[in-house]
Amino acid sequence: MESGFRRHLVIKNQMLMKTNSISNSPVSGRNIGQVFTLPGLRNAMVIALLLWSVAGFAQASGQPDEHFIKGVVLSAEEGSPLTGVNIYLKDTNIGTFSDADGRFWFPRKLKAGEILVFSFVGLKKQEYVVAANTPESLEIRMEADPLNILGAVWIDAPEKPRQKRRSLAGN
Amino acid sequence: MRLLAYTLVWIAVLPARAQVSDFKGTDFSRADSVAKLYPNHPLTNLPDLAGKLTHSFSRDEEKFRALFTWVCLNIRNDYRLYLENKHAREQCKTEAALNEWYKTFSKVLYRELLQEHRTICTGYAYLVRELALASGLECVMVDGYGRTPGTRLRKNYPNHNWNAVRLNGKWYLCDATWASGKIDRQLNEFVPRYDDRFFLVNPAEFARHHYPLDTSWLLVQDKPALSGFLK
User: Fold this and answer.
1) CA distance A136 to A68
2) Which one of A11, A56, B29, B209 has the lowest number of neighbouring Cβ atoms within 10 Å?
3) Cα angle B136, B137, B143; round to 5
């Protein structure tokens, strides 16, 4: 919002400088007819500019903080790019995934307070809350999600007692 | 008058029946057929897969059934991987060594799950949990002891993972690993065959084969002792 408003102000100032340069130009001295028409023209331009900037400001404040977000997803341990990480807007189907270099470009403008979820098999899920002044490029570092790996299988015949005997012999 | 009496008796009996098995009469064929629409669907986007499996259902138990069935039909138990892990765990003398092994083996496990759709019980429980969470269902992995015919259980040596899932505000237990099929001892390989005995089982029944490290996941009032289970 701020940057949009500032941009409008800058443009407006530039335009005003232009109108000023017209009124101060030596043309006004040479052509009397023009001298009379100029203030009218100037007023009209100022009003038009004011309307334009007000309209621009209204537009900017109507969509606060909507911006595109891009970034890169890296492994927290090795710093290497992570490919195929799912990046989606929380509780929606809107999303994308990171490319071979770990890069992504979210396909929709995002508002402050919306939540991006980064997830992939084997990685700890991460959430990113979109801030008002989100940097254009995010760097998300994702940690591995190690599991306590157990593993009983349902075997349809009893295990052979061979292993037990061996372990007894070992002791 | 007699009809009224029957109705009253029926109403009185109904909650008691529900305690024993809440989904005994539920027809899960629609959920199962949705699960069969996506054979070998990649696991690279779990939220997407979860959405495909559950979006046509409004009831928690049907959503969960669709993804449970999908996991059981599409993930194979890798006996070789099981043996490798079992052997390595037995070699680990310290907790630190064990944790180091888990860290290394986790990567192998995830890769195999993603690329080959093969895993051991931890991968099954992980996948069920992730798909359930992506579908808005509360779900946890439970660590503990699993008793199968002929296994020798040792204290402080848990050997199994399964899931607890919260459906309509109540917790239930299930085991996708054992529901998916068995290891044939003669062939030394996995034979897929869906076994409904391990889906949303009544806790007292489930406790015959499963004993969690955190006993609150027994989900029963009178908790049986671990020593009795290990015998």
Assistant:
1) 7
2) B29
3) 135
**Any B CB within 8 A of A80 CB:** no
Query: Mind listing the pLDDT tens digit for each residue in B37-53?
Result: 999 999 998 999 999 99
Mutate to test the interface with A, among B121, B137, B193 (most CBs of A within 10 A): B121
Q: Do A154 and B110 touch (CB under 8 A)?
A: no
b vs e for A8-29, b when ≥16 Cβ sit within 10 Å of the residue's Cβ? beeebeebeeebeeeeeeeeee
Rounded CA separation B118/B77 (Å): 6
Instruction: Write the pLDDT tens digit of every residue in A121-171.
Output: 999 999 999 988 766 789 999 998 888 777 666 655 444 444 443 333 332
Q: Does A151 contact B186 at a Cβ distance shorter than 8 Å?
A: no
**A167 neighbors B152 (Cβ within 8 angstroms):** no
Q: How far apart are CA B133 and CA B140, in angstroms?
A: 9
CB contact under 8 A, A156 and B149: yes
**CB within 8 Å of B99: residues ≥ 6 apart:** A146
Q: Cβ of B183 and A146 within 8 Å?
A: no
Cα B204 to Cα B179: distance, rounded to the nearest angstrom: 18
What's the pLDDT tens digit per position in A110-124? 988 999 999 999 999
**Nearest C-alpha neighbor of B128 from the set B78, B79, B178, B185:** B178
Are B47 and A86 within 8 A, CB to CB?
yes
Q: Supply φ then ψ for residue B14, to 5 degrees.
A: -55, -50
Q: Name all domains of chain B by residue range, CATH numbers in brackets.
A: 25-230 (3.10.620)
Contact between A130 and A114 under an 8 Å Cβ cutoff? The reply is yes
pLDDT at B131: 96
Cβ contact B53:B131 at 8 Å:
yes
Count of A-B CB contacts under 8 Å: 118
Q: Where are the alpha helices (DSSP H) in A27-135?
A: 27-30, 32-62
Question: Is the complex ipTM more than 0.85?
Answer: no
User: Looking at the complex, does the CB of residue A127 fall below 8 Å from at least one CB of chain B?
Assistant: no
Q: Which of the residues A121, A160, A171 would you substitute to probe the B interface, choosing the one with the greatest number of B C-beta atoms within 10 Å? A: A121
Question: In this structure, what DSSP letter does residue A100 have?
Answer: T
